[in-house]
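Can't attach files on this board, so I'm pasting raw text. These are the components:
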Amino acid sequence: MGTTQAAVDDAMRRALDLARRGPAHGPNPRVGCVILAPDHTTVLGEGWHRGAGTPHAEIAALADATARGHDTHGATAVVTLEPCNHTGRTGPCAQALLDAGITHVVHAIPDPGATSGGGADALRAAGVTVTSGTRADEALQLVHHWHHALTTGRPWVTLKTATTLDGRVAAADGTSRWITGPQARAHAHTVRADVDAIAVTTGTALADDPALTARAADGSLAAHQPVRVVVGHRNLPAGARLHGPGGELLHLRTHDVTAVLAELQAREVRPLLVEGGPALAAAFLAAGVVDEVHAYVAPVILGEGPAAVAPFGVSTIAAAPRWRTVATHRLGDDVLVVAGPTSQEH
Amino acid sequence: MGTTQAAVDDAMRRALDLARRGPAHGPNPRVGCVILAPDHTTVLGEGWHRGAGTPHAEIAALADATARGHDTHGATAVVTLEPCNHTGRTGPCAQALLDAGITHVVHAIPDPGATSGGGADALRAAGVTVTSGTRADEALQLVHHWHHALTTGRPWVTLKTATTLDGRVAAADGTSRWITGPQARAHAHTVRADVDAIAVTTGTALADDPALTARAADGSLAAHQPVRVVVGHRNLPAGARLHGPGGELLHLRTHDVTAVLAELQAREVRPLLVEGGPALAAAFLAAGVVDEVHAYVAPVILGEGPAAVAPFGVSTIAAAPRWRTVATHRLGDDVLVVAGPTSQEH
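---
Top answer:
Structure tokens for the assembled complex are below.
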């Protein structure tokens, strides 16, 4: 039994590694699956989810086992997330596991989805032994944007700032290129390539004419481009770079953060990056919906110029939103402070 | 010869370790000295400087050799700084080395002092073989505040800020306790215990009533207390905490940073910590005399409230003072960014 538990734990670790091959962005969670032989000594198949519209991890793992010529009857499926129970872009995984003769399922965390959840119950009702909780923390961390969106009903919001040591995003004359250095800017592009959407105000779009694309150091576009969300009532000029190559352009003619988030949730946006300007940061902070802050800080002092965040109604220190520092990264001469929720919520 | 060089290098490393036992604050540099037997295989004596008014490292090392019963004739003195050549609070070390029969001196870096320097020349004139440059970078790093004061004619200035992620030092209602957490505040006290003076404006003194002492976590005063410098014309109330236990209180009734630095240089202040408020930070920045920044950043956002630094005449990004990030430290949920000179100057 100890050996079997160790084998299942190894398989879950492998399943998590497989899951990480999937994309961090997109509507679906990253999931990995390993099919173990009935005696748990042999891996029959492996699979992971490559993104919306492609097979779920369980289906991929069963297909891999079949391709390898293995019989999966009486086998154990070790999967990082509870198998789904609904027909979405693909069929329900619970049924596919039953059809393949799987008799044991070990999953790391339950699926909180109202429509996708319930797979464990369906499997149990059909006589499959189902256990949950193996490496649950790692599995939750891997899908926390998606999990957050399903449990709170809105995207995971990361506020990005890039400031001097005294909190300025530009000098008094409006110049801001460059406060941070090339390594920090390159890092910001890797973050863009991992989110579903980036939001700025029309004010920022008109003032800075940003492209809001995820680019490599050589300027080429990354394979995945986030939706470019512009919030506000003003029109963008026909020649704006936002009309150029990159992700879909979504102009939301509102100042209501709740409406913005509802629209993005309906579009299955999971991670959202709020890039500015100061008024948009303030609106998200005022709504209490900033889950994480990415603060790039450059060793520069300006003394004046616009601040990263406009006033949002906090007048005393005890009322200020506070996060927990999750990580710091040196990026050349700049420092990235990643600050996340103070609670355990992901 | 290779063996001898290795022995001298070992002795210099030891001398640097001894030097580090001395205080980081105070008018004199930290110096260590090792007396090697003529064949370099034996250490005859060791010493280090314990601070102004106590014997220099060479004198301490010679005394140690004597106490151990060793004859120092024909011996080599390995010392982290060129032996001094003047009678200050103590007699000239060059003469003491000659009197002790030392025939070789190896020092790491020359003494840039107009009065204290020249020891190497005096020793050579008396027939001693003198070499310089062994572990020079380490030796310079060890005394860089002192070296800076002697070569530039003013103290080494560290500007300290403690801000939110958006650069605020207090909320709109003036509350600032606490933006940073206990670990960051404890760290700031260890820095105070290593500097010669702390400067604030009368405005900060009147608004915050700070003690400006170096305290341990239990509130007890550190052994060394920096001079408490208050800059500005207004009087302090009789009951101000600045009149309480702590370092000397020095009220400089001026707004001229050059005059402040000249007064502190005349008092042999080497490291000076500028703690605020925003106007004092701005004055030092405008004068171009901020050598280093200690920026404590807390994962909090306020959106309004006073900034760490008042305007100081920089209106465009290219004109902003910029440093090199020397180190970052996680202090609980806060991050300390230490930013130093962009050049090699220490």
